[in-house]
Amino acid sequence: MGPEAAARYAGRIQSVPRPVAAMAACYPASTTSTRHAHRRGQFVLQIAAVTSMTTDHGGFVIPPGHGFWIPPGIVHQSRSWGDAEIQTLYIDQDSVPDYPRKCRLIRASPLLQALMDEVTCMPLLYDEEARDGRIVDLLLGEIGRMPEVSLHVPIPADPRLARVCEAVLADTSSCMTLDDWAAHGGMSRRTFTRLFRRETGQSFSAWRQRVRLLEALARLGTGEPVTSVALDIGYDSPSAFTAMFRRELGDAPKRYLRWSDPSVVVR
Predict the structure, then answer these.
(1) 258 falls in which pLDDT band (50, 70, 90)?
(2) Is residue 103 within 8 Å of residue 68, measured between CB atoms?
């Protein structure tokens, strides 16, 4: 289903009398949702293209083959980079009381992806005591054991810092200096750097580099060449960008994204 139908359907299935309600949807490139929250927890599995997710606590990027957990009541907004395909679960939190109370990005195992395929094909009122119920139980356990991936940036609570962060997110290639950003936040350089580190646990330059990495990952996931992405987000050369990417994510861009290519056959 498309984005408008998906939004209506998601609202209707929040109260289904089962631990899990599932759906699949397609979102054209640049589709941006409204800021919203759900009564149930939400698990999103990215099938194709890339989705970026913004919450009050930070921004995340979800590449193919990755899943994103959003606890109940967390306000979020999504944007699709490329023509995105996703599978979504809405999970009754009472069914998984040990699930985390904060957003969490994971790499999805082949088993998890196969189970998601099964669950999205089930009727909403599946038989909890038969095969469908056992598959749901296995899926919930598999989601809970997947390794977490750090593809996010925190958003400070201080409104002045948040204003600066929003401006950086809007233009990741900006050439503004640290002094310029401090002035944008209405603070001295010293106050800005001290407060930023206290609220985020990292320097502003490290945070900004992370933002650039996440945008690069989103754009690479749509098929853009490494060279054009590297130059557009402010790197002097593709090699400098690749070195940063490898340092942060442990692999070169093409190899990292090939790991999560949904067309790869697992034998």
Answers:
(1) low
(2) yes
